[in-house]
Amino acid sequence: MSLLRNQTALQGIAFVLLMVSLPVVVLGGLGDELWLLVGLAVAAVGFLIPPLAKLVPSEDDEEDE
Amino acid sequence: MARELSIPPYPRKASERRPVTAWVYATHCKRHRSDTTAKAVISVESDLPITLANWLLALVPIIVLLILLVVLRWTAAQAGAVGFFTAALIAWLVFQSDTGVLAVATGKGVWDGVFILLVVWPALMLYEVSDKAGAFDVLRKGITKFTESKLMLTLAFGWVFVCFLQGIAGFGTPIAIVAPLLVGLGMRPVMAVAIPLIGHSFANMFGTLAVGWLATLQVVELNNQQATALETAALLWIPNLLSGLAIAWMYGRGKGVMKALPVIGVITLIHGGGQLALAGVNPIISNFIPTTVALGAILALMRIPAYNKPDDIETDIFEDSGGKTEDEDGPEYSLTLAMSPYFVLIAVSLLVLVVPPVNEYLGRFGIGLPFPAVETGYGVAQAAEENYGDIEIFTHPGLLLLFSAAAGYAIFRAKGLYKEGFGKNAWSGLVGNALPASVAVLGFLTLSTIMDHSGMTTVLAQGIADVAPPMVYAFAANWIGILGAFMTSSNTASNILFGPLQSEAASAAALNQSAIIGAQSTGGAIGNAIAPANVVLGTGTAKISGQEGAVLRKTLPYAAAAAVLVGIATVALIAFTG
Predict the structure, then answer these.
(1) B328 min Cα distance to partner chain A (Å)
(2) Binary contact (A25, B106; C-beta < 8 A)
(3) Environment class of residue A41 by beta-carbon count within 10 Å: exposed (0-12), middle (13-18) or buried (19+)?
(4) Cβ count within 10 A of residue B357
(5) Backbone torsion region of residue B384, taken as left when φ is above 0, otherwise alpha when ψ lies between -120 and 50, otherwise beta
């Protein structure tokens, strides 16, 4: 649970997913188009994290309260 | 029917290359969706339906982004991510972009983002290395030897020094360097980001050894190169003068402007007038020379008593001595030592970027990625790329920053200036600020590539060109340049994206091509003051990630005023030159 409230950790996960999507897309471009879809999906999950994290109160918010 | 815009291959043999343009050309290619072998195909005349509904839908991602950032005050990472989904959804549902197009656009956007992140992370490292050694405390105290006028310091760093850096390095480096320096001087962080964003904007077109100009020559067949260079430089003088006035206004409103007026007059004469004088002779050095001369001029102006003593002007852009007093206990060492990493940065940048043989040799090592050809249902096509976005490792600004950070660390450590726990503190500072900035940059650039690959960008620009009467179009031409720079955070990319369209529109409406291309280029420069990816560079390095909306609220009025004035000047230029 604490991981979900740690904004830095969430940003880190999003960043890693976005970085991972890049070689997957490149791989898809070189051959199997399925990998293009996988790369896009990985990037989409990465981009989902920041707006979803807005819904979860962070540790900093709780300290402020 | 698709129209091909071909970029000629970069000469493989060293003997065929022009010395100064070698690096500039390579830089242009690596940043702008082309490589040294492949052709960039842009479907300007595809089957894209240019309708009001499509135009409005193409505008939605940008509107969403602005509302989230400026009105709802979301962080850049959150707004960028939502912008990505909005653009992808509209591209898929309306602009017939299948998952292949979206995946390739996303991949290219992430890779474009990597180019910028390679500036963000080392710039933050340089900041941490200097900050943890107390260099900014020394700077704050030591700079009073030159002047005690904070107005002069604001102009010197936020206008003159940032333009000098843009003259040589570019690619966001000036913002990443100057924002933390201003914070170090005690400026409020939001202003410390907004001021260099405004200050550096004019230098984007002919700065970085005129990369924007050279790229424009590659994509637009100019009827008169010299006239275009001169008219572009004339229009760029407007944002230069306005940026000086805006910065003085932000410092102390009317009193700030009145006091700074002579200084602004001298500097803008050197910046704008010098660039205008040189643009017709040698555009490549037309920004570098005046911005370097201006650096000397502002130091000379600081010796004048009126600009040497503390100001009697109330200002709210500085925190009270940065929360510290001059008598406080702090590190005691020379200003030269404190600034040593930045001196290293300037020296290495000049050596690597300006000396042709060094640049040519180091520029041979690059990494680019292959991407397949894609085409939307409307026939907006992107050619296959063998070496997309070639990043030249040893001439990339990020490596220069990293080298400076390493040199600074070695110097400060040798002098025993680091306290225990330096490594842990510096690392947490770096990661805490770089991560949100990184996700945001990736969001903005993928949004931009999706809009580009789906044809939404073309619809936006073509829509204006199709319906506006000639003089209205002339007025709005620089707004299109601003749009391009807003999306890509690059004057060069804006000109590559919209230069051909502007040229065609000028021809169709029988408008002076030189003035319209000049307006496009000036808009591209102005747009850098509000480009979200640039803003994030500043907020990341000034350690205020999440306050991008607050920064935009400061820079948007400047950009709007500059756009209106440049629009009026473009109309006048056309009326005057015919």
Answers:
(1) 30
(2) yes
(3) middle
(4) 10
(5) beta
Which of these, B123, B121, B114, lies nearest to B445 by C-alpha position?
Answer: B114
The model's pTM: 0.78
Confidence of residue B127 (pLDDT cuts 50, 70, 90): confident
Short-list B394, B347, B437, CA closest to B121: B437
Q: d(Cα B394, Cα B269) in Å, to the nearest integer?
A: 35
Q: What are phi and psi of B367, to 5 degrees?
A: -125, 125
Neighbours of B366 (CB within 10 A): 19
Minimal CA–CA distance to B487: which of B59, B40, B169, B93?
A: B59
pLDDT digits (tens, 9 = 90+) for B37-58: 233 334 445 788 889 999 999 9
Question: Judging by beta carbons within 10 Å of its beta carbon (0-12, 13-18, 19+), is residue A55 exposed, middle or buried?
Answer: exposed
Rounded to 5°, the CA angle B540-B545-B550 comes to 110
Q: Which of A15, A25, A39 sits opposite B438 (nearest CB)?
A: A15
Cβ contacts of B299 within 8 Å, gap of 6 or more:
B146, B156
Q: Which amino acid, B411? A: I
Alpha carbon B222 to its chain centroid, in Å, reads: 24
Question: What ipTM was assigned to the predicted interfaces of this complex?
Answer: 0.92
Q: State the Cα–Cα distance between residues B394 and B404, nearest whole angstrom.
A: 13
Beta bridge partners of B371: B385
Residue A30 sits at the chain B interface (C-beta within 8 Å): yes
Q: Return the closest-CA partner of residue B340 out of B119, B156, B129.
A: B129
Written as six digits, the tokens of B70 are 């400026």
Residue in this structure with the two tokens 């549902």, named with its chain if needed: B93
